[in-house]
Amino acid sequence: MLFSCKYDNEKDLYPDNSCITIDMSYNNNISTILQDYGCISCHNTINPQGGVNLEGYVQTKIWVDNSRLAKSINHNGASPMPKDQAKMDSCDIKKIESWISDGARNN
Ligand code: HEC
Predict the structure, then answer these.
(1) Where do the structural domains in the chain lie, given as residue ranges?
(2) Global pTM?
(3) CA-to-CA dists, residue 62 to 43, 66, 87, 90, angstroms
(4) Is the pLDDT of residue 11 over 70?
(5) Distance CA 24, CA 43 (A)
(6) For residue 34, is it left (φ>0), alpha (ψ between -120 and 50) or beta?
(7) Are 44 and 53 in contact (CB under 8 A)?
(8) Are 64 and 55 in contact (CB under 8 A)?
(9) Ligand 1 pocket: which of 47, 65, 83, 99 to mutate (most atoms <8 Å of CB)?
(10) Average predicted confidence (pLDDT) for the chain
(11) What span, in angstroms and rounded, lies between the C-alpha atoms of 9 and 23?
């Protein structure tokens, strides 16, 4: 191959077609994403690193409302998260942002 593609996966190539962000649910989508990226292993009730607890809706909502969560995952104006790792997949970021702009409901 003469030219290599700079994109690694379909999600980056076709963001609009493959990334479904409507009607995001805290229980079915958001808590799973936070779990999958290891957020909860550093930000839990027993040992909330940086004083940030993201275990459960009520605690997570605090960091939504002060906008630190959205900033941190966008590496924009807060400590970049997940800590010492690459940005989350852009689709997962969009899902969280969509849930937030829908009012960050406990749904
Ligand atoms: C390896 C442990 C670790 C992981 C994994 C991790 N964090 Fe953090 N997080 C920290 C620490 C430690 C801090 C305190 C600031 C610092 O040291 O960078 C922090 C700070 C934060 C803050 C406050 C940022 C600010 O500037 O006010 C938010 C919000 C946050 N993390 C969200 C997340 C989210 C969301 C994820 C998953 C995508 C995540 N973190 C993954 C350790 C972690």
Answers:
(1) 21-101
(2) 0.89
(3) 13, 6, 22, 23
(4) no
(5) 22
(6) alpha
(7) yes
(8) no
(9) 83
(10) 91
(11) 24
